[in-house]
Amino acid sequence: MKSLVWMALLVAAVFVVLAVLKRKQSDAEVPRDIDLRKKRPLTEREQSMFFRLCSTFPQHVVLSQVAFSALLVSKQQATRNGYNRKVADFVLCTKAFDILAVIELDDSSHKGKEGADSDRDAWLTKVGHRVVRYQQIPDSAQLLADFPVSK
Q: Any residues with CB less than 8 A from the CB of 19 and at least 6 apart, and which?
């Protein structure tokens, strides 16, 4: 009788483990009815800025849509939680990937959000990154004036 009880418990345990594994696998699947579409990584305006930066600074590396977690590091989870979903528009780097500046291209959606922008900038400037914000796409002369670099 005892072996029958143990066998029943073993079978029940196997079913529980299988159910948990199946649930974990199904959690990783994208629901069929979800509203999900592809999009370009940069808007047309951001593309123009990207190409302007690349043509003005061919001796450097221009990155776009860079997660703050690639620019900042902290051992404290609470600190990381403060910046973990933030993204910089552009990062201008040397060929050795030393960061020269973080460049933000603001549009009308930033009106009234100057405080939030200032907080975002503070995360980056706290560790020594230079942050430059533009309302409009600057011409090459303005970029060269703002970022004097040797050819």
A: none
Look up the pTM and report it. Answer: 0.73
The C-alpha atoms of residue 9 and residue 6 are separated, in whole angstroms, by 5
Check: CB of residue 100 under 8 Å from CB of residue 147.
Answer: yes
* CA 41 to centroid of chain Cα atoms: 11
Q: Could you tell me the pLDDT band of residue 37, with boundaries at 50, 70 and 90? A: confident
Asked if residue 17 is part of any domain, the answer here is no
Per the structure, the count of domains in the chain is: 1
51 belongs to a structural domain: yes
Beta bridge partners of 67: 87
Name the token pair of 97: 């990937």
Residue type, 101: A
